[in-house]
Specification:
Layout: H1 10-20, H2 28-34, H3 38-44, H4 50-71, H5 77-87, H6 90-99, H7 110-114, H8 121-139, H9 141-151, H10 167-176, E1 184-190, E2 197-204, E3 207-214, H11 217-232
Antiparallel strand pairs: 1-2, 2-3
Helix pairs in contact: 2-8, 4-5, 4-8, 6-8, 8-9, 10-11
């Protein structure tokens, strides 16, 4: 695909992001690609961020795995994998994107923008990975480590406090120890299509175990599972 220069205010927005992150970037077009959603790329016939997302995902997995390996020398492989999965997942990556305020520079197609794409966890998670891919190509793996230290590695100090705990999996394991019946998650949606709130009830054998609210189905499910586990512990 031949790059097309699109007139927009991306450079101004990205300059603010880079200044906050002390990012002395060299190749602006790499970051433009990282911040370009497929819908915007298709509308303007310009490169979008899927390839950079692929690269950033691999780098993120490697660096978090490397950090865990060195940080917790006595942790067995299974626990290392589970811990990494808590800190490297769609919901977690979307949170990192918001912490860095990357969505301020996100380029979306008109339809995706109207549907609130700049708040969707999947879009924000992909943006975070693509951004890491761009930083790696532009400034090297050392700068990527510094960014991860800011938004991820510092949080491992609180690893026992349940940051990004997968409450759904914990509840499933708890229930399966006692019953073969599956958990059922029932949904209700409130609000306009671009700003929905989900109310979820988690049920087992016709009994409501817990309920939760969230801006995505996954967040609401996690909140409902957490509520169920809390009630069971009483």
């Amino acid at each position: 695909m031949i790059p097309v220069i699109v007139k927009d205010d991306f450079e101004t927005k990205f300059s603010r992001i880079a200044k906050r992150l002390h990012l002395k970037y060299k190749n602006l077009e790499l970051y433009r690609m990282a911040f370009t959603h497929k819908t915007y790329g298709n509308e303007h016939n310009c490169p979008y961020n899927e390839r950079l997302e692929f690269l950033g995902d691999a780098i993120l997995d490697f660096l978090v795995g490397e950090y865990l390996y060195n940080k917790f020398p006595d942790m067995p492989e299974g626990e290392l994998s589970k811990t990494r999965a808590k800190f490297v997942c769609t919901e977690a990556n979307a949170e990192y994107s918001k912490l860095l305020k990357l969505n301020e520079g996100l380029l979306l197609g008109k339809g995706e923008a109207a549907q609130g794409g700049n708040t969707k966890p999947t879009v924000l998670a992909d943006l975070f990975e693509a951004f890491l891919g761009a930083v790696y190509l532009d400034l090297g793996i050392g700068k990527v480590r510094k960014i991860l230290n800011q938004v991820i590695f510092s949080r491992f100090e609180a690893i026992d406090q349940g940051f990004f705990v997968d409450y759904k999996s914990e509840l499933q394991e708890y229930i399966q120890a006692e019953s073969r019946e599956s958990l059922i998650y029932n949904y209700q949606e409130e609000g306009p299509s671009h700003d929905k709130t989900y109310l979820v009830q988690v049920m087992h054998e016709g009994v409501v175990l817990g309920s939760g609210l969230g801006k995505s189905k996954n967040k609401a499910e996690q909140a409902a599972a957490k509520d169920a586990l809390s009630k069971m512990a009483r």
